[in-house]
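Extended Data, panel c. Modelled sequence:
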Amino acid sequence: MIYVSLFAEFFKIGLFSFGGGYATIPFLYHLSEVYNWYSIQELTQMTAIAAITPGPVGINVATYAGLKTAGIIGSIVATISEMFPSFILVILLSKLLKKYNENFYVKSLLSSLKPISCALLASVSYELLLGEINNLKGIILLTILILLSWKGKKEPIFYMLISGSIGVIICLFN
């Protein structure tokens, strides 16, 4: 019965928590009050651990909460059930886009999303750059990689691997 409850609750969290992993925290707080699966202090610890581990915070918290509540199987159930609504939505949207990809309104919507996405990425990049403005080595590396990407035309992963390797080397010798 605990697995059914885990599935239902984390499915709802996956369905209704818009805005990223931290948007799941009010839902998780509610779960701690209703089910007593974990305490508020444990929720704080789960959130902290989820924030420093690789992967999406919401999924990491679901995995940890499921583990705390019902062991390994509970973590699997909570993780899958939180991802399931997004999985369904992506499948439905891809089928709709495939069906209506020649529709004028769909084309207009998608073409207007491209500059918006670029603006959001530029805004985040600007904020990140401001945080690193005193990091001369990082700025030089960024400039070189931008120039190489314009000249080289290789896959982005190539430049990510190069920058990561150089970053590790720089850290080792500092």
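Residues 57-100 form the longest helix (44 residues). This feature is highlighted in the accompanying rendering.
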